[in-house]
Amino acid sequence: MLTFLAKLPTQRRAWAILSASCFALLAAALFFQYQLGLEPCVKCIYQRTAVLGIGLAALIPLFAPQLFITRLVGYSGWLVAAIWGWLIAREHLEIQNSENSWFIVCDTFPNFPSWMPLHEWFPNFFAAPGQCGEIDWQFVGLSMPGWMQIIFATYTVIGVAVVLARLVRFKSL
């Protein structure tokens, strides 16, 4: 198992699967937004951005998985975005589970850097008309941020396992 995990980052297929899983999640988000009418809030948009970050980070080593630097950029982007996404999902879930969620106000607009106002450039993807405290959808008792916590935790655990397996294998050579 350790050898299998250690070899994954040198294979294009592994990075393609990671990236494809993120783009599938983004497609699902757009389905929920435009087909089911669930408006994303600011926390949703930040989680969407984290998923996009993982997907884009996976594209870099996809083109040259044998190069250490591309894998390093891929690992870094993957883990930073996954951990950041988990933290945002946790905050979002706390807002939804608070007793007076209507009194907890999240930002009206995403707080992207002034040099990259994604919500202005791509409003259909990054605009946040929804309310953070609303629970419009649940599956098996979990709302969207609850599922996103699980998804981000899974991305993080797999990322850490792959990096550790790679380090252990490298150290044993």
Please describe the topology of this protein:
Blueprint: H1 2-7, H2 12-34, H3 42-63, H4 68-97, H5 118-121, H6 123-126, E1 138-139, E2 142-143, H7 144-172
Antiparallel strand pairs: 1-2
GO molecular function, one term: electron transfer activity
Subcellular location: Cell inner membrane; Cell membrane
GO cellular component, one term: plasma membrane
Please provide a written account of the structure:
This protein has 173 residues and is mainly alpha-helical. It has one domain (1-172): Up-down Bundle (Bromodomain-like), CATH 1.20.1550.10. It is 68% helix and 2% strand. The protein has seven helices and two strands. A two-stranded antiparallel ribbon has the order 1-2. Strand 1 and strand 2 (142-143) form a beta hairpin. Helix 2 (12-34) packs antiparallel against helix 3 (42-63), helix 3 (42-63) packs antiparallel against helix 4 (68-97) and helix 4 (68-97) runs antiparallel to helix 7 (144-172). The radius of gyration is 18 Å and the shape is elongated. One of its GO terms (cellular component) is plasma membrane. The chain crosses the membrane at residues 45-65, 147-168. Residues 32-49 are periplasmic.
Count of DSSP strands: 2
Describe the sheet with the most strands.
Answer: 2 strands, antiparallel
Order of helices and strands: HHHHHHEEH
The amount of helix comes to 55-70%
Strands across the major sheet, in which order? 1-2
Mean residue pLDDT: 91
Contiguous uncertain segments of 5+ residues: none
* CATH topology title: Bromodomain-like
**CATH class annotation:** Mainly Alpha
- Beta strand %: under 5%
